[in-house]
Structure formats: C-alpha cells, structure tokens
What does this fold into?
Amino acid sequence: MPTITWNHLCNYCHRPIISGKPTILFATDKPLLLGISHSTCCFTQHNLGRYQMHPPNHLSREYVTFLIQFFPMMYSLPGGVEPNAALLFCVSDFHWNYPAILANPMKCVHDLQERHKDKALTYEGDLEADYLRFLARVQKAAKENPVVVEFDFQ
It folds into this structure.
C-alpha cells in the first residue's frame, strides 16, 4: 500500500515536505486525489479541495477514500446566502473537524443550530436527515471506489 509521508515532494515547488502542516489536494468536480503540497504552496489555489494535516497525524486509506468522494459532493451543495446553505455549513464544519468528528457527526448540526438559536435558520426540509443522507452518500461512494493510498505524518 502506498504511504505518503515526510520527504514526499510538493506538487507545486517540488521540494520535499519535511515540516509544517502538509496539505492534501483533491479535485472538486470529480472524485480524485491530486497530490500533496506545503500549506504555503497551495493557499492561492481556490479551485481545489484541501485537507490540512496536523502532525503527528495519520489518515488511513479508508479516510482518504472518504475525502476523495467528499469534496466533489460538498462543492455541489448550495451555499452563500441561498436558503438551503445550512447543509453546506454543517458539511464544512464536518470537514474542519475530520476525522475526530466521526465520533459524533451530529455535533456539526447541533452547533449550527446553537449558533442560530436567536435568529431563524432558513432550511427547506429536514436538516438533520439531509446531513445524514449526505454523509451516507459519501460513505457509499467511498465503499464502492476504494483507494490504497494513506498519509502518515507521525
């Protein structure tokens, strides 16, 4: 199984990654792992899905497979000031807290509802059900399309 770790070459500057917070790069229009870079090399690339490692950190192939499927689905959600943007907010919180959030994925929904308890949260439908349905679709796609890459920055 290919393991990407320290001294792997950055996709942009082609120097080895020897410290810092390596950033894994994903396509946002299709499920695809693009590579890895220094966090400072990719920060202007807004068209990429990015997952920043926080060493010491390890992402198993299952976690990587999940993220490969996650980013295109996340980027297809309505956002901004649209009425159903609440789902994107929950999914974004999930992304920032991944993989630790897997212990309690509903925390993202409850935190969003808590932040908006004083003002109405506009969402057409059942936010909790749609959020869980989104995660289930990502998980199903990940099980159907596994990858053999893992990241180990310990």
